[in-house]
Give the backbone structure.
Amino acid sequence: MAGRDFRELLSAQWRAGRFLCVGLDSDFEKIPETARKNTVADTIVNFNRAIIDATRDLVCAYKPNNAFYEAHGDEGWRALRATVQYINEQAPEVPVILDSKRADIGNTNLGYVDSFFEHLHVDAITVPPYLGKEALEPFLSHKEKGIFVLCRTSNGGAGEFQDLKVGDEPFYKVVAQHVSEEWNTNGNCGLVVGATYPEEMKAIREIAPDLPFLIPGLGAQNGDLKKSVQYGKSASGRGLVLAASRAIIFASSGTHFAEVARQKSEEFNSEIAAALIQ
Amino acid sequence: MAGRDFRELLSAQWRAGRFLCVGLDSDFEKIPETARKNTVADTIVNFNRAIIDATRDLVCAYKPNNAFYEAHGDEGWRALRATVQYINEQAPEVPVILDSKRADIGNTNLGYVDSFFEHLHVDAITVPPYLGKEALEPFLSHKEKGIFVLCRTSNGGAGEFQDLKVGDEPFYKVVAQHVSEEWNTNGNCGLVVGATYPEEMKAIREIAPDLPFLIPGLGAQNGDLKKSVQYGKSASGRGLVLAASRAIIFASSGTHFAEVARQKSEEFNSEIAAALIQ
């Protein structure tokens, strides 16, 4: 994928008014009967292709989450690779964010660099902050890739450590500060900020006025779309990667699941557009 | 792997006086010529088998790190699965700790549960703390599996967040406290504490007197073995999983690499035994 640059791809999508990211959390058990093939891998790829064909002009990015693929071992990995390859070939203007949520220390990360960037050819990844910047240099040094650091996660128990006060500030704000001021020397960092915590998002946006926010938790997790747009948009009115998964890809289990996924995407886009002009 | 219980397996190893964990960080590029086969997967598996055959009576656990396998995509996953299967069959008394360093939120983790426990059949995993206990319940509820939470990592930049003061205490001590007092209701938690930070290890052992410590950083990273044993051992004089990888498995690149790995393991064991009686 020589020549691809995540921030350029994303900026072009934003200029075209696209802020919706479809999460390809393609849980095998939930895939409609009509999309099924002989093998697990073929079924997942066939389903993903149908979703991609139906939504590629409506999204700013796709976001497969590794967990749903690795559940099936090497077969799942083949499905993940084939899915990313399909997006790269059929919708080369749409960046792929791998929701990997993993990192190791130093050179061990080179294994993941090979895995994500050389083998799977994704444009961006998600990483946890706990190991510190020094550990993540093998990722951060890839300036053409997007590195989204978990800042405020969307789960109900996110506050256990993320809300602990470091001096006067909660820990999630300290993470935002470090990433914004110290980690982003290559201009390739972003933050993961759950739609389920709009007030926290507002505080994080003040700290990081220009970083892209990957915002999960819309749809099935009941995140607040309107407030996410209002509080999450950057100084320039962009900066949003609003992710919904189940609410789109599994909106229907019938024959027309892909058409329904398109309708749901259009509904999300209308809501986003309405919130942006408010 | 019905009937296997990580803590029982580990306790039996400790009773037999074994505290060394060999890290199967089987970087393909470093595998000796003499161990090579036609494919990447066959080469890695062949190398691992030779190391396992040569060391199985000297170790308390094996610890493959995913990164070295995932670097090779689905082929790497087949190699990882075949390696764990070989240990389970040929050395069923030796638990396998998968150094996965990943977690997602809530039910998404079920994909990783399937991957790690149903597909790969490992006995224990490593997870980062940032998402909180609630996110990790799908792992923690498996009481027969070991869940090692990253507490103080071995890398040079570990302190960026881990040393930040939460009230009067550094963050890594708060993590140790939460895991010890709140996460360990099934008695299946442990902590990852780098051998490169002996003073921090001492403080963590005071907070968590009985949790198993997975201690990376010996050998190539120059962690302090003597102090790790002294400060890391539990109240009962056990609790140690002392991990070395490159220093053992890549000690020789010659024909007799497996014999040399055995010699190195014996040297580590002598040092551990000497440190334990001091």
About this structure: Chain B has one domain: 6-276. Chain B touches chain A through 61 residues (CB under 8 Å). The longest strand of chain B covers residues 146-152. The radius of gyration of chain B is 18 Å.
